[in-house]
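User: Show me a protein chain along with its predicted structure.
Assistant: Here is one chain, sequence first, then structure tokens.
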Amino acid sequence: MCGITGLLMRAGLAPDPDQLRTMAAMLAHRGPDDHGIHCAGPVGLAQTRLSIIGLATGHQPMVAADGTLALAANGEVYNYLELNDDLRRQGRHLLTDSDSETILHAYAIHGLDFLTQLRGMYAFALHDVRTGCLILGRDRLGIKPLFYTRLPDRVAFASEIKALLPVLPGRPEIDPGALRRFLQNQFAGGENTLLHGIHRVLPGEAVIIHPDLRIERHRYWSALDVTPRTIDADTARETLDGLMHAAMREHMRSDVPFGLFLSGGVDSAVLAALLHQHGAGRIRSFSIGYRGTAMAHELTEAARVAAHFGFDHSPLELTLEQVFARIPLTVWAADELMRDYASLPTAILAQTAAAELKVVFSGEGGDEAFAGYRRYHPRPLERWFKSLLHPGSGGFRTRGQWSGRWARHVLGPALRGAPGADRAPFVAAWQETPPTWSDMQRRQYTDLVTALPDNLLVKTDRMLMAFGLEGRVPFLDHRVVEFGLSLPDRLKVRRHQGKWLLKQWAEPLLPPGHLARPKRGFHVPVGDWLTGDLARRLGERLITNRGIREWFEPAAIPALVAARQAGRGGARELFGLMQFAIWHRLFIEEPGLKPGPEEDPLEWM
């Protein structure tokens, strides 16, 4: 895992190595083990490295022996051993033990077609000297991030937005439509980011930047190509067994020890069982719960799973003060405004694990692949009613995070009049699905291309990489995702319970009775924290904050605080305003600031 950044200059210009060093310094947290810079002609590449595979020989950027290709890569190509065997048979001479070198040689033989051969999580920049093109590629599901911006004389790219801020010609400008979508959807996804002119390389996409800085987009994978299959339960279990074991064998390839984030749920318990079956031994595992709150936690269940498989387990029981002291750092780490409360405990887990490990496994993706969420199988009346009120997406993703009252009174004029509907990404995803798909498959797909890459995986990548920790997510092996999406509804949901096939397959592997527990999710007790005097002090800070005064109506905030103090909602709205106020300072007013792991969030507004 690494941070990558770089520049492609217009013909006749050369990149400034000092500027590359400045950009790379903004990504030092992603790669504390090594760093490198490559400049040749119009291109400059930089990488900060977290050494996982090929520890002694994987220095980057990498340059082909004949000098025609240069590469900076982030992530893991899990099937590099198999690909390297094939490359050697075709006459390629590999010089390192790094999985990243596979990208260089595979492109040299197959061109862009090599992308379909990769299995893993990756983002890379590959400069082809012969064509003069810079290729920016990203894995199929968007596990690893990659951003770029086109300026008059250059295109700059980076693993995180913060590394692009030093090359912008002036103060970053906010896209009001994206800001409004963050408030209403808890994230703003798609090609365009919250900042004008900074774009995402989309999951399953390569962006080709030509020498004249013309940009061409190449889609090499899409879940839309999945064909629904007719399959019986026994065959499906057998197929799933083969896929999960194959994915786990590849994901366990590492030259350093690894651990596991263990909740009391199904997905992380399945990973625990597979790690145990594949000989991981007494690995480290970590779980989180809370003190001083009425919210139930899963420490007991997680400890039971860890004991069953003989792991060296660390339960972390946190106070509310410890959890919410992470807010400034998580805002900085995420880059993009993203209101997933689970980022807070995830950051604590990451810091704890990173003190002794470089790699952890995590269960993200199981719900999306096998229809675990309640929202994938609503009651027919609920679906009909929501679809009637909010057409376009089959009643899916219809409710905004802000109440209508506070949206009308607190949003400023630019946000109230922002172009583009809040639900546009969900409607667009729903509308592009094939007519042969079921309602459930459409719901899964909509999340796979919106909430998964732009919310859940932002949390997984950025919170862990803030502490130089790699997260591996075997449920997001694209073969597993394609299989889960293709299954008939009856193998995913029965008696209104999701993940039926996964649970049927996993039951013999897990501690007795584990699957009988109700699904809880990774909750955070925001309501227990954002009350009373804290809400009052937050309101006072919001009213004077520069970003809030520019984009919102400060005069309406006291009423919002009073509603929160009286228990009449307002928690999401206040939390979102607080995140924005901190983000505005870190990314608009004073880029380059970095909060510590434990800070008073009110002091960063």
